[in-house]
Design a protein that fits this description.
Elements: E1 2-7, H1 15-28, E2 33-38, H2 40-43, H3 50-66, E3 74-78, H4 84-93, H5 98-102, H6 105-112, H7 119-133, E4 139-141, H8 147-164, E5 172-174, H9 204-212, H10 231-236, H11 242-253, H12 259-285, H13 288-317
Parallel strand pairs: 1-2, 2-3, 4-5
Bound molecules: adenosine-5'-diphosphate and tryptophan (TRP).
C-alpha cells in the first residue's frame, strides 16, 4: 500500500499536527510504502517572508526526524525540490473545473479570515492533487479539515482518467475519527493560524503558559463536571492510555476536581511525553547540513518514483514530440 501525506512549513508544528497526521504517518512506516514531504510550495500561498519559510522548512524536517520518521524506511523530502510537482500541477489545471475550486471550504475560510485572495490560494487544491497523483498514492492520512481537498484530488484524477484512460489511482483519505479534530486552547480546531496551538517542542515555561490558558467552563470545585464537552479533557486524553483516561473521567464526575490541578498534571505529561524526542531533536539541530543531505537524497528517491507517472502524462497530453 502506498501512503502519502504532507505538511506545510508555515509555522511551528503543534500537537494537532502530531496526532492528526505526523504520528499516524510514522506508525505506518514499517508496513506501508511511505511518502512524507514538507509542502513548501503550498506554504508560499500564505507566507511572504522567505527567510522564515526556509527556516521553518528545516525545522519541520527536524521535527519529523526527531519524532521517529526513518528516511531509510520511507521517502522523505521537500516538495519544491522535485519540480515534477509543479509540472503536473499545470497539466491538471486544465482538467479542473472552476466550480470545483470555487466550492473549496478552505479557500472560503481563508477569505473570510481576511486573507487577500491570490491565485495561489485559489489553485492550492490542484497542487495538492498533483502531490498525491504523482506518486499513485492509495491512502492519505490527514485531519478532517483536508477531506474536501482529497475529494477534489479524486475528481481531478477522474476527469483526467476519463479523457486519457486509466492514469491515476484514486486516493482515499485515512482519517481517524478520534483524532480528526484536535481542539486548541480556545476550543476551536488547533491551528497555526489561530494562535491557539500547543507546539510539540515548545520550551517548558511556554508550555505551562499555554496549558494553563486552556479554556474550561465555570463550574465550581464542588460540582461534577462533564469530560465529554471539556476541552482540557479532549487534550489530556491524547497522552494517556485507557486506564488513566477512565480514571480521569471518574474524577470529572466526582465533585472536588479542580481544573487547575488537571492542567498542572497535563503540563508534566506533555513535557515528559516529548522528552526523548526533544533530546534527539537537540542533537539533530547541531547538524543541519546532515538534515539537508537527508532531504536531498529523499528528493532524488521521490523523483525516481514519480518518473513513470510524469512520463506517462507527458506522453498522453502530447508534451513529448
Ligand atoms: P494548520 O491548520 O495548523 O496550518 P496544517 O494545515 O499544516 O495545519 O495541517 C497539517 C496536517 O495536520 C493536516 O493533515 C491536517 O489535517 C492536520 N491537522 C492540523 N491541525 C489539526 C487538528 N487540530 N486536528 C487534527 N489534525 C490536524
Ligand atoms: N493541504 C495540506 C494541509 O494543509 C498539506 C498538503 C499538501 C498535503 N499536499 C498534500 C496533505 C498531499 C496530504 C497530501 O495540511
Amino acid at each position: 500500500m502506498r501512503t502519502l501525506s504532507g505538511i506545510q512549513p508555515s509555522g511551528s508544528l503543534h500537537i494537532g499536527n502530531y496526532f492528526g497526521m505526523m504520528n499516524s504517518m510514522i506508525k505506518r512506516q514499517n508496513d506501508d510504502e511511505l511518502f512524507c514531504f514538507i509542502v513548501n510550495l503550498h506554504a508560499l500561498t500564505t507566507v511572504t517572508d522567505g527567510r522564515s519559510l526556509a527556516r521553518n522548512t528545516l525545522e519541520a524536517a527536524l521535527d519529523f526526524l526527531a519524532l521517529g520518521l526513518d528516511p531509510e524506511k520511507s521517502c522523505f523530502w521537500v516538495q519544491g525540490d522535485v519540480a515534477e510537482h509543479a509540472e503536473l500541477t499545470w497539466v491538471l489545471h486544465n482538467y479542473t473545473p472552476m466550480g470545483l475550486l470555487e466550492r473549496s471550504h478552505s479557500y472560503k475560510d481563508k477569505i473570510a479570515n481576511n486573507l487577500t485572495p491570490n491565485h495561489g490560494l485559489f489553485a492550492y487544491p490542484v497542487l495538492m492533487a498533483a502531490d498525491i497523483l504523482l506518486y499513485q498514492a492509495d491512502q492519505v492520512p490527514v485531519g478532517r479539515d483536508q477531506k474536501q481537498h482529497l475529494e477534489i484530488a479524486r475528481d481531478i484524477a477522474g476527469a483526467f482518467n476519463y479523457v486519457y484512460g486509466p492514469t491515476f489511482t484514486l486516493p482515499e483519505p485515512a482519517i481517524d475519527d478520534s483524532l480528526a479534530v484536535i481542539p486548541g486552547v480556545d476550543g476551536r480546531k488547533m491551528s497555526k493560524s489561530y494562535n491557539n496551538a500547543i507546539d510539540i517542542f515548545t520550551p517548558y515555561e511556554e508550555l505551562k503558559k499555554r496549558v494553563m490558558s486552556i479554556v474550561t467552563d465555570a463550574k465550581g470545585v464542588n460540582e461534577p463536571k462533564d469530560p465529554d464537552s471539556c476541552n482540557l479533557f479532549a487534550i489530556y486524553r491524547l497522552f494517556v492510555g485507557d486506564e488513566v483516561r477512565t480514571e480521569l473521567k471518574d474524577r470529572y464526575l466526582t465533585p472536588g476536581l479542580k481544573y487547575s490541578e488537571v492542567k498542572k498534571e497535563l503540563v508534566e505529561i506533555i513535557w515528559n511525553y516529548f522528552a526523548p524526542y526533544r533530546e534527539k531533536r537537540e542533537k539533530l539541530a547541531t547538524r543541519p547540513d546532515d538534515v539537508r543531505d537527508v532531504l536531498k537524497a529523499g528528493a532524488a528517491k521521490a523523483r525516481r518514483c514519480a518518473e513513470p507517472t510524469i512520463n506517462d502524462v507527458r506522453r498522453k497530453v502530447g508534451l513529448i514530440y
